[in-house]
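Hi all, posting the design record for the shared folder.

TITLE: backbone redesign
STEP: 1 of 1
STRUCTURE INPUT:
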């Protein structure tokens, strides 16, 4: 029987800027793929902090490692060597095949650094008005430059004038890419999410990625793959582009890299790695010992516990369970995604499902208005995947059985 949701006992928030429409839930602690609210109610966490809690909550090896690091050194400064930076950078280069890393604190910061690299790559070649190709449906962050690269007009609204120099084309359309390059000879890079997250879990197709790689090589421009959301093992490989057997020149990362400790990184290959020189870019917090330790320990746990294989296997099971549950159901447009980055597109706005799912004990997100997104921790078990499907399928069935608004 469904347990009724406790009346919310929530602090009012007179001093917090209300930039989010929040659910009436305050979480107090977590364990693995489960979280508890301040009323003691338990939820299965299908959201993972929006693709952040790679190794789940309160991981028994991550927590003591971070405790030890905090007791030793949280922050120094980039004026000094930070040995853990080299350790994490070397690991990121090993798993990506790229060569150098700049560390920062978030996804938008990683993308800002990528945008600066693309512009300076142009300037270094005598192109003083460099432009960048971006895509319909893209989301790259909320700073002025990254929101300008983002496609959604709702995210632009109220923040003009936008940063210029972005040329937008449809995703998965190579002829459109080629036409835009002919029309804009100043383009110095092609910038896209390997799988769009906020845009509704829309994968760039394998042939499209391979075509972009070929074009970037021919034209001597940069292929820049934003793997902030889809990277770090989420799809079952370290990076989503590895399914297409290509390498980017520039790859921004964040979200899952620190398992919740803010870490961003831009991983570059040889064509981009030397573009930024001393004095060109910087950050106070980026690459501090605590953040680096979180990254090092996250990747270590992922290897020790074979979380890439787990993401592929359990993600496949979850996708199959959802596809079977929704088979033939009018109102379901598509179940898509790879590994533990899944989207269920409905034929109508799905925001109301957030509260209904929480009431049924499951945390999810809804993105691009109509797409239910599941991005749980990569430690999700087969049983937990089955539980997600068992909660979500009847809920969505009842939802789409109602008349369309
Ligand atoms: C693909 C992608 N890029 C960039 C960002 C921005 O990251 P952050 O919120 O850490 O600034 C996000 C966040 O959702 C994202 O999904």
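Okay, here is what came back for every position:
SEQUENCE:
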């Amino acid at each position: 029987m469904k347990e009724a949701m406790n009346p919310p006992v929530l602090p009012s928030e007179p001093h917090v800027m209300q930039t989010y429409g929040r659910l009436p839930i305050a979480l107090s602690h977590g364990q693995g793929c489960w979280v508890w609210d301040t009323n003691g109610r338990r939820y299965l966490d299908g959201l993972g902090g929006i693709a952040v809690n790679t190794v789940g909550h309160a991981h028994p090896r991550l927590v003591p490692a971070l405790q030890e690091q905090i007791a030793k050194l949280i922050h120094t400064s980039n004026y000094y060597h930070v040995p853990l930076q080299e350790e994490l950078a070397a690991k990121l280069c090993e798993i990506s095949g790229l060569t150098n890393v700049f560390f920062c604190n978030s996804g938008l910061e990683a993308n800002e650094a990528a945008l600066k690299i693309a512009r300076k790559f142009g300037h270094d070649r005598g192109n003083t008005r460099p432009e960048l190709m971006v895509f319909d449906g893209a989301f790259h962050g909320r700073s002025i430059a990254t929101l300008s690269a983002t496609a959604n007009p709702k995210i632009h609204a109220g923040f003009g004038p936008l940063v210029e120099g972005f040329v937008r084309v449809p995703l998965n359309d190579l002829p459109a890419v080629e036409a835009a390059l002919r029309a804009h000879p100043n383009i110095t890079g092609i910038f896209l999410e390997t799988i769009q997250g906020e845009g509704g879990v829309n994968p760039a197709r394998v042939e499209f990625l391979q075509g972009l790689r070929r074009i970037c090589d021919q034209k001597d421009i940069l292929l820049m793959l934003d793997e902030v959301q889809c990277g770090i093992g989420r799809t079952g490989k370290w990076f989503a582009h590895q399914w297409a057997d290509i390498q980017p020149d520039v790859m921004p990362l964040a979200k899952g890299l620190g398992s919740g400790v803010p870490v961003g990184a831009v991983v570059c290959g040889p064509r981009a790695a030397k573009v930024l020189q001393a004095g060109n870019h910087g950050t106070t917090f980026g690459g501090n010992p605590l953040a680096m330790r979180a990254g090092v320990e996250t990747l270590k746990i992922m290897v020790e516990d074979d979380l890439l294989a787990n993401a592929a296997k359990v993600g496949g099971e979850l996708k199959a369970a959802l596809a079977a549950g929704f088979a033939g159901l009018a109102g379901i447009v598509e179940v898509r995604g790879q590994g533990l980055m899944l989207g269920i597109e409905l034929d109508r706005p799905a925001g109301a499902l957030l509260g209904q799912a929480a009431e049924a004990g499951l945390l999810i997100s809804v993105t691009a208005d109509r797409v239910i997104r599941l991005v749980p921790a990569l430690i999700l078990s087969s049983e937990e995947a089955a539980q997600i499907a068992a909660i979500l399928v009847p809920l969505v069935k009842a939802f789409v059985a109602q008349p369309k608004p």
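COMMENT: The chain has twelve helices and 17 strands.
Let me know if anyone wants the other runs.
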